[in-house]
Design a protein that fits this description.
It is built from six helices and five strands; from the N terminus they run αββαααβββαα. It is α+β, with helices and mostly antiparallel strands.
């Protein structure tokens, strides 16, 4: 089931229309396991260059304050929400200001770090920050809906298999009876049987 939930989460994150990433804090170096298309557009990286890597590659050559680094580490270790604006660098070397929100989410039996990124300016930080809780809930609702839909599909498939097995079982039971009925009712057999009975009666009278 762990792989099942992870596959659904990865697919849902990949289809998101906001810049979002999903990382696994229980694995060494907290690698990214999923990212959305908008994140790839902001960062300039391909998906295969992101998945499996720690998100610190966005910080290369950037001056990140000790306070921000400490708060991010605490967030990853404890799951406590983090919100901060920091300089990041795209693949082409261009700098941009990234409003980053991190929080721990439970998917199935596993804990992941959900990250939402937004290229921002100082004047719209408050506005974007206010929208983040709604974005997080929307993403989690999408993952939950995908889980329910997949579960329902599995149940339908299982029911179909059960029905098919039951039909074949009934056919196996009825097949010998059907063959017997065809034999008894066959026009070619009944007259032959009566003829044999008539001959036996004649022999008995003689």
């Amino acid at each position: 089931m762990k792989a099942f939930y992870k596959t659904l989460a990865v697919a849902t994150i990949g289809e998101s229309n906001v810049s979002v990433t999903l990382a696994s804090p229980d694995e060494p170096d907290c690698p990214t396991v999923a990212c959305s298309e908008p994140f790839l557009l902001i960062s300039g990286y391909r998906r295969d260059e992101v998945v499996g890597k720690n998100m610190r590659f966005l910080n290369r050559g950037c001056a990140i304050s000790a306070d921000l680094r400490h708060r991010m580490r605490i967030s990853v270790r404890t799951g406590r929400a983090f919100l901060g604006v920091m300089p990041n660098r795209r693949k082409n070397g261009e700098l941009f200001e990234n409003l980053l929100y991190l929080t721990a989410v439970r998917i199935g039996s596993e804990t992941y770090m959900l990250g939402i990124q937004h290229e921002t300016k100082e004047h719209d930080v408050a506005q974007v920050s206010d929208a983040i809780p709604h974005l997080v809930q929307t993403i989690l609702d999408s993952i939950f809906a995908a889980t329910i839909n997949a579960w329902a599909a599995v149940q339908v498939m299982h029911l179909s298999v059960v029905k098919l097995g039951l039909v074949r079982y009934v056919e196996d039971i009825l097949q010998p009876l059907s063959d017997h009925q065809r034999l008894v009712r066959s026009p070619g057999h009944a007259p032959q049987r009566r003829e044999e009975i008539g001959r036996a009666s004649c022999r008995e009278r003689v």
